[in-house]
# Entry
Amino acid sequence: MATPGNEVQLLDAGIQANAPSKGSFALNMLFHNNSWQVRRGFGQVTQFDTQMASPLAGAATEWGFKKHLGSHLIKTNFGNLQMLSIFLADVNTSDTGGSFTFSAVEGIYVVSIYDLTTNERFEVPLYTHTNETAVSASFNDSVPTTVGSRTTTQVNLDGVEGINPQYQTTTNASYAAWLKAKDEFFYFEEFNDVLYFGNSIAGAWAYIPASFNGLRTTTVDENNYHESALAYGESSMITPVVLSPGINPESFDYVRTSDMANPVDAAVVQNRLVYASGKTLFWNDPGFANAITGNNVMDVPSEELITCIAELNSNLIIFTKNEMWLYQPSMGDIVVDGRLTRVSDTVGCVGSSAVAKVDGSLVWVDTGGVYTTSNGISMSRLSGEILPFFTRQGMSNPLTSYFVSTPRFGHTTLSGEQPMTTLRFDSEGVKCIYVAAMKLLAISIPKLSGALVLTNGKWSWWTFESSVADDGAGTAVVGVTQNVPSPWVLGYQDDFFVIAGPDVQALIDDAVSGGGGALNADTTDRSFFILEYGRGGAIDRSITDEDDRRITGVGIRHGPAGTDSLVGSAAGGFYLHDPIKVPDGYTFPVGGEIAIPGRDYILVPISIVLPQDVWDFTAGEGVDQIAIGLGFDAGRWQPVYNGVYTSTIELMLPPERLASARAVAGTDPWTIATYSAYDPTAGSFALRFGVPSQSGGYLAVWWDGQHGSHYHNPHMNLTEGRHNLLIYLPFKRVAARLADDTSGMGWSVLSATAGTEAWLDDNANGILRRISLFEFKRWSLGSGSVRKEDSVAQPVDWAYKSTNVGLEEGKELKMRGVWTNLLSHGSGTDKLNAAWPYGLFNTLVGSDRKEWISQIIDLSPTQAAVEQQDETSPFASTSTLRTRVQQSDGTLADKVFQTGGTDITWGDTGSQATGNLLIGDEDTSEISVSMSAKGQSFSVMHFGFIMNRAERLMMEGIKAIVRVVGGRRRRGR
# Structure
């Protein structure tokens, strides 16, 4: 007769690491709805890079976003949910790529605003604004002469001395004043529908929420002289906070900006915005964010500098690294006469983002743990069970993959990145949020690529890495997949997001110039991406086509050459501007071609800045001929033609140029076509081009105003010294080369015996001038480089390890069988990694305190240490689904909906059948695992790898049968 056994519940607490004999551990799980469940995946919402220019070839390895320095979600007063993020970036500050005087490659702060409601993004770098030099009569200040490193008092065009803004920097003048960025995280505080942010380097800034449509150029314009430069001003959305007198300057002296060192945090208390700087607090007037009376400045007698401040119950909680204070402000105009109480001299807060409100209480992160208070006086530690995580000891992750390596189990060569097994707290960039709908407190640790998560009093570790790895040849190896680096959690009410990066992608330039030479302008793109919890199903960074990068480039100047060339401040030039992407499905008006998705249809705008003082318009002079001869990368780009068999390119004129295209007897003043050959020695522009051809790499843009009775005949209506938009050149990627990455279209200006083929002419008055041509090189990603169709998705590793059962009994025990009450969607057949040997749900049993892992090499004789479900190799497996539905032919089917499957059909109205399921819920099943272990204690670990969007696991209970088979041994194991 078998010895009766006792059922033991194994599924209970979360992480229990604060003991020599480790307790339970939960990896990528949360306790919700009275069950432990594998967390959902974080799917990609968007991916973006900076619009600042890249350096020249050879200096491109450090280009782009280097580091994320903080983000904040704000619900605007017009109802949109927006995310403002700050990045440290190494960029080129001008659009000319370092080829002109005022361009520099340097580290700056870049603010990115992404509107999650409209899917629009805007970017603003931080620079000195003219309002920082504003003169206040009540301050009786003199006119400032410098801001930062530049002279700000300049003589304007009208001869009046004044201050010119940042974006008036051009080829012949520089007013740029970029903030020199350093690696320091930012604080964020919302006050009266305005988001305030800053750090000790950048100072205090404000974002006034706005809606926007598309990006604008963020570099300064050094392709133009002052008169023809783009009419950009300073950003009105992102502006520095400049202190000024408030509403009562007669009664109070007000603090100047120079009197307050740059704040490190801000909080809102009783309708006042409070800044913390050093050991001092600055209280603004009620309702104002930039008016501080001298009487409302208070010093905190702390031993250390303030790191964080937060509001609680209309009081102010003040933290240093190792101290906590409670300040209860006084009533009335002067608030610094209140009560200041030192709460702790050992517990502080690691930073401005490491604090959150949780159901009326304050939760924050100290170097020694996670704490909470509801009144500001008494506090308790929430992190007692995970205390080793905050010490040098660290906390161990039981899920490893060392047993997958070959040639023998338990071996790794250490040649690649290893899975993270020891977790120790790192305070840099810690972010704390609370998601009320899930009762979830999340504390992201970017340095560890993970987050501590507390739900219903139970801790779990969420990792954003996966130990699923292979060698590329179909063999699983010890390694790690890291497609979500440095995650930062964000929450707004029920919304749960992560921003992560950088995604570093090396781009090898496949483009060639019009002359056939390789451009070799290789670069490295550094971008960031936003993920949303539950978006795209169960895997991390699932993606369809949410790659919104616009790999930027640089501006290049070509020419001019020839005896009739114009150079200097009045030279003017032709401009090939940043290409405009044509929306999919657009129909071109003449030829009728439809823009096919994936072909990169673009419009290249061409404008001209007419040289000044060359033509005397009062005497009837003007431009009656425009000629541009260009070579381009015809192997990768092809114009959109106005017919199937013609080499004439689709004529697309802006409204102001329609008057230049009135034809007579079929003769059009415009000739825009491609040719198979070019002879620089031929007598005229028209004769130098060979046979018209759609496969040719030579392009002629020619306008002859004397050949048509158009308006303004024979001249074109142009304004000197300003940009005049001429035409749009439509192009598309060559279908056979869609996989190529190109740094541009390979434009080159053709040369003839007389000089370069970019010129203006007035035949009647004998005036011919060759001018420069400026090109903006915009990258185009090949089909293999675009992040799409789960190309960067990664599995979600999960595990739940029970505590040691029988540890205190002191008897010889035998565990025989584990039963799990499980909700599962089953295992998907389309997996992210087909080489990985372990599937959705697996069971591992270890005895005698080998609780963290019972390795295969420990077992003799060799046996399968892991019982698998929903995976056929390398061990025999069973399913996590119970077959509950009997079909009409008597066979049993799994209750799983799948396209093309043979399981469940619902509402099948396309045939005589009516389906075999009318209504139902997700099923829970009891899954039995027959494994045994013998010893004085044992633990069970369920683990698995979510590798399909539709997979899901929820566990209501795990029970094991335990039998006593002997007394305490004289010698322990």
In short: The longest strand covers residues 953-966. Residues 142-161, 855-865, 872-876 have pLDDT under 50 and may be disordered.
